[in-house]
Structures are given as structure tokens and as C-alpha cells.
């Protein structure tokens, strides 16, 4: 899946979606643990922190292990003709994609790949490959498959705590 991290024949440009960065501010001194817990619950529900900055919602696993397995098979069958898995993890990939949303990566994959037929795969194949990429980058699996209705616009490609 061409994502602008390797020299693909398509030569397409990336459509970058950016947004406010997570701020994870610590609780004020003297703040009660009850109000801190309430604030954390509010942050998770609203996507903002009490200091006014945006916070990453706590989405526990937006793909399943079985979906990532299907994605690996699809990657090996379709994407590996032009790409290696190394292009989609590590410092280079995180520098390019870590702060962007999962939706931005999905949109780019869907509109540019495969090179000889952009958008020509079933949506589930793109989602499965995306689940595999998330797994390679340290995202935890969850109880439901990644879908077009998943909170992809609220989750960064770099998993929480990765420093990206």
C-alpha cells in the first residue's frame, strides 16, 4: 500500500490531515483524586482536556487480531509486490505518519493503492491492511473489527505513549 514512504511508481502526493496535538497535562497540586478521575472521564468522553487543549480519546483497540491477520495475508498477496513491511513501522514511518490520524492513512491508502488500480480493492481489504499496520506499530487489538464507522478520525497512527 503506497503511503509516500517509499518510491512507488505512482508518484502521487500525500493528502495530509492534521489536528491539534494531545497535551496530557498533569493534575493541579491539591486537586482531589475524585475530581481528577472525573476530569479524566470527561476528557475521554469529549476529546478535550481541562486546560483547553485536545486530548487523544481512550479508544481501546479499534481492530481485532483476526482482522490484522487477514490484513497481513492481504499485504503479502497484494502490497508486497511493491512494498515491504519495514516501510510501515519504525522511525521513518512514525516521523511521517505518527501524528496523523488513522483515517488520514486509510484515506490515502484507499485513494492511491494499488498503483495499477487505485481504490480498486474492497473496502474491507483496505481496513484489514490498515489493522495490520496498526498492529505493526504497537496498537493493541480490541473486540471489534476496524470499520468505516470506527473512530479513525480520533486516533493517531502512533499508539498512545509512543512519543510521536
Describe this structure in words.
The protein has 164 residues and is mostly helical. It has a domain at 65-154. The protein is 37% helix and 0% strand. It contains 5 helices and no strands. It has helices spanning 33-46, 65-77, 90-97, 102-112, 123-136. The two termini are 22 Å apart.
For this entry, give a set of tags:
164 residues, mainly alpha
Strand content: under 5%
Largest sheet: none
Point out poorly predicted stretches.
Answer: 1-58
Order of helices and strands: HHHHH
Per the principal axes of the C-alpha atoms, what is the gross shape? globular
Total number of strands: 0
User: What is the typical, i.e. mean, pLDDT?
Assistant: 74
Number of helices: 5
What's the helical proportion of residues? 25-40%
Q: What radius of gyration results from the CA coordinates?
A: 17 Å
Distance between the termini: 22 Å
The secondary structure category is: mainly alpha
Helix-strand layout with pairing:
Blueprint: H1 33-46, H2 65-77, H3 90-97, H4 102-112, H5 123-136
Helix pairs in contact: 2-5, 4-5
In short:
With 164 residues, this protein is mostly helical. The chain has 5 helices and no strands.
